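quick one: nickel (II) ion bound model?
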Amino acid sequence: MNTKHCCLTKIYNFSAGHRLFLDRLSEKENSEVFGKCSNPRGHGHDYYLEVRVKGEINNDTGMVVDLKELDLIVDKVISELDHKRLDIEVDYFIKNQSTGENIVRFFWGKLKDNIQNINLVYLKLWETENNYFEYFEEKDIKYAN
Ligand code: NI
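yep, here:
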């Protein structure tokens, strides 16, 4: 039997600073690999995170997810990054480059660990108005844009 699902997408935002930099490379090489994101004094982004969840519509509430619960979980993860210099202050990004790819993967891991009864489908992280990064499991690919 085909189960019907409804998807909800909520958009969150946060701001953070970073610098992309590999110790083993020279300043010039880093600049070639990472472009402006390797500016030695760092720089910031206003990130937007789209969180898509799915579920069956609850007969009583008419909703697929308790939004207060979702907000609580997402806001908690965001607070680990918001207004931080990622590559200096956040352990995960001291060890991993603070690229959009790694930031969206960071969110996926943290959210998956914390939302047992909410079915996370898809994350989209906007780094600038011209580029974004998506993260989802292959089985859910049909739910992605
Ligand atoms: Ni950047």
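Strands lie at 6-18, 43-55, 119-128, 131-136.
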